[in-house]
Design a protein that fits this description.
alpha/beta, eight-stranded parallel sheet, three-stranded antiparallel sheet
Length: 312
Amino acid sequence: MTFSNRITQLTGTQYPIVQAPMGWIARSQLAAAVSNAGGLGIIETSSGELDKIKLEVAKMRQLTDKPFGMNVALSYVRDSNIIDFVVEQGIKFVTTSSGSPSVCTKDFQAAGITVFHVVPTLDMALKALDAGVDGLVVEGGEGGGFKNPSPVSTMVLLPLIRSQCDVPIIAAGGIADGPSMAAAFALGAEGVQMGTRMLACAESPVHDNWKQAVVAAKETGTVFLNQQSRPALRALRTERTTMLEPMGAFNIMEHMAKIPDLYFGGDMEAAIPLSGQVAGRIDEVKSAADIVQDTIGEFYQVVSRLADSYNN
């Protein structure tokens, strides 16, 4: 199946499916699998482990000859040379987040790099457009990870931002399959980003305990934490996160000190397992290739069914 729109043209990918830049997770093992499947793998920087990230970019060159991108998490990257590093790698697509894209957009674009900024509100989208970004990742509050303290669902946020801009949009938050991709396109997106769905795929480096917790989760199986501070975050419900839920504000880093024990050791109580509400719709661990192919196939089935049912 072929797919051509502004997202595939800008990314050089076969399909407009982007893997979310999850800290410590979005590295070469996962990102290469997504890129090889026809989507766009993204290498993260939010872990702050820049020396390791540089090695992961080198590994990507060995694992895939397909396009891939990087996320520059502006509040978490302490290396002032990150712009030069990204440019030197010949990477052509960057998403920016957790800060103002004005600090790097022009430099990236001067090097021929396409820049999309992640936004959780209309105001932030308009500021990003003023900074000259090429497109937006519109992130609904149902998504996992660090969030805006006042979450807005994808179904509300996406068409609102689309009504105010004409740049290409990648929808994030609640996307796991073809029907949700079709819904995002109906609301104005031209691409989708998957986080929790890719976290729970076969090539994800996280421990199987976390993947199985996603598979077992109900639609009510996440909590929204630290809502009276910044950043808020959405995570799976565990004993730890249930205890934290009524606390309006707390020191996040105190609960993330043992990330390796959770992410790679499988101790679900060692830290906060960031995941989105869409975990309630994920019922099996599949390969990245199957996720991408099934999503595209289902997308076309939904679009065709709707056209046949209502276009008369």
